[in-house]
Amino acid sequence: MSTTRRATIPATRYPVERLTLDNGLRVVLTPDRSAPVIGVAVVYDVGIRSEPEGRTGFAHLFEHLMFQGSENLEKLAHFRHVQGAGGTFNGSTHLDYTDYYETLPGNALERALFLEADRMRGPRLTEENLRNQVDVVKEEIRVNVLNRPYGGFPWLTLPPVLFDTFPNAHDGYGSFTDLESATVADAADFFQHYYASGNAVLAVSGDIDVAEAVELVERHFDDVPARPAPVRPSFVEPDLSAERRVSYTDRLAPLPAVASAWRVPDPISDFAGYLPYTVLAEVLTDGDAARLVERLVQRDRSVTSVGGYLGFMGDPFDVRDPTALLLQAHLPPDGDVDKVLRTVDEELDRLATDGLADGELARIQARMATHLLRDTDAVLGRALRMAVLEQQRGEPGLLNELPRLVGEVTEESVRAAAATLRPQRRATIEVLAGVEQ
Amino acid sequence: MSGPMTTVSRALPPLGPTRKLRLPKQAERTLSNGLTVIAVRRPAVPLVELRLGMPFGRVHPARAAMLAQTLLSGTTTLTGVQIAAELQKVGGGLSAGVDPDRLMLSGAGLVTGLDRMLEILAEVLATAAYPADEVATERDRLVDRIQLAQCQPGHLARTALLRRIYGRHPYAVQTPTPDQVRAVRPTVLRKLHDQRVHPTGAVLVLVGDIQPERALDAAEQALGGWNGTGHVAELPATPPLEPGPLLLVDRPGSVQSSLRMALPAVPRTDPDHAALQLANLIFGGYFSSRWVENIREEKGYTYGPHSLVEHSAAGSVLLAAAEVATDVTGAALLETQYELGRLACVAPGEEELEQARQYALGTLQLGISTQAGLAALTSAYAGSGLRLDFLAEHAARLAKATVADVADAAAQYLAPARAVTVVLGDAQRVAGQLATLTEVVTEPAGP
Predict the structure, then answer these.
(1) Is A285's pLDDT higher than 60?
(2) Interface test with B, best of A4, A76, A82, A136 (most B CBs within 10 A)
(3) Name one Pfam family in it (chain B) (predicted).
């Protein structure tokens, strides 16, 4: 029997209004008048996995091109109009979607809608802008991958160990060769195919009046030409039946590192089967009281840090199948990766066999609730999450339910999840230190 | 799209009326032990953010870093694991960090757990034990982390720049060496804790779904008995920047160069600050700036150039940073000097200023629209002796700065002749390019 007092898991009650325009654009509105700011997000259902062979990095390169002018806007105008309204903006490319977003003072709603509608009708795809952004993307890759230790570890280096097919295994940042050979015609095709109104979701959160927002959305998006969403192919691959392990030397890395991944249930069609894995990752690695931190960092001192999460980009609730639970660790100078993996197996066994300690599950769930609520405190966090939940599940209101659903995950299901993380289903990437200490 | 377009020309919609900056409800109390507590109400989510900043100047960087690394490793009654687990029970967590000015404890949790978080915080402050085993583990981890940092170009460039601009000031070295860390023993940490972890001059900030007065009561209840008396060390003012030859730090094999510049700046309360902030935005402080448009959007030399005014207790400095392709390192420096010089010599346009002003005002609104943003700002302001109402004063100064004010600030602070410049990169490939523009001295990369 538990004698520990259990923290009550609170919930949010963000209101959700959904509508679909005649051209197929889905819209989610979630008003909250507690601060005079808004978040605007447009999410297209295309990501790294949809890139054709020979065009690695194209989804991300195209994301850059969406900022380079549109029907009624010169190059640089988008940035100036958002920031000149007191707002901030960005975009990002994921495995299964690409997002574009702004956070703005509430009086800039119509301006933001105008800007997003204009590029949804058509970005200005010119040779000059393409060449310029290929250069910029190459510098981005140098900053984040080539010129720093552990660049791309493990999000770029582990998928090719776990997966076999091009969509799941290739480098989403892209090779310089592929980037340099991209053409304006490729970009026009990509836009035509994937950036259809029927393949997009618009979400607006924050200081809005719903009726007024609906009117403004219709005013700016109604005449975006209708194009249906393309059929998304299945990216399913069979699970591993034998352990895989690959290592490489990172010439800039001073210390060894390791990451492992195991496939998990389909996050969309088997959400109930998937949720316990999100809890398991936290049981293993969230903070000094987590199992692997206590064992590997503090007791054995066989690693200096360890982290665990769902999805290669740390995106548990906005990724489709196939995806994975990942564990990654940095080791001390003479660290022994084999020993670390053996200990992980041992701890997973112990969890599967003996279950959780008194109060352990409840405190992890309380902590997860805090993280979820904190992420949605920002209006933009809410808009982005709801847009993707609408796109992938048709259920933006799930955002309100997540803390409760995480809180309802049972000890039995966490144990069962741990029991599936067997060595023969594991893919591991090992980084060998290339820098002498 | 390519091909003929048959589109209607559409006009950019105007902005709606500005919604007024409203400061949230807050309360403040200084306890008899010297601790100041500021509580701010923002009830959007049922959480509370906690920041406790303590003056921590003039502490040896190795001792300071190790104290932050081990402060939460155990007390007389709780182990480090128990501290973490007890906090988790209320959805909470705490972490410690340190810079040359302050020791900071930060965390967030369910608002229903505020009392418990404060209780644990009080226990840590009063009875942190620095257990020998945990200290040994954390020492090794910190050494590994420092070694890792020393392989990061950004860290190496910053280290070289700090040494170059601060000379003998305590800010010059902010990262200890592995050997210095290895020498820190638990007894040293306990002594340092006794001397420096005390309530005088410390500020606790609580932001969230709270009634401010009640949160102050809760803080007083938990922390009123915290009574370490010790000393607060004053830092000397930072020295003026001394421009000189460009310092080229050699990192053979780099596929990019890290360009860093330091320029003079003033504290938040200085009458020039608002105008300087606007001048900085126009130069390189946001995406729609001249520098970004030039070296990224026009020339493709770099991914994310940016500049900002960094405020520390002993002085402020304007820092500009860009990672640029090796082949265009000299060209990127040329364009940077050009943009600085152009703004310092020629007044900006009205429209350009208006755009920067709206950005500055808008991001103030955005910054205080979350609990975490409010907590960070309140705590940063408190570190400079300011309160949230300064935000309104600052907004008013931003609103009334004229083109002439901004031109004056640019001439005074952004003149390229006043810049201290450091480049980290492959010296063999970039020294020649840089030497065409300025005098260069080269040194090897290293801690």
Answers:
(1) yes
(2) A136
(3) Peptidase_M16_C
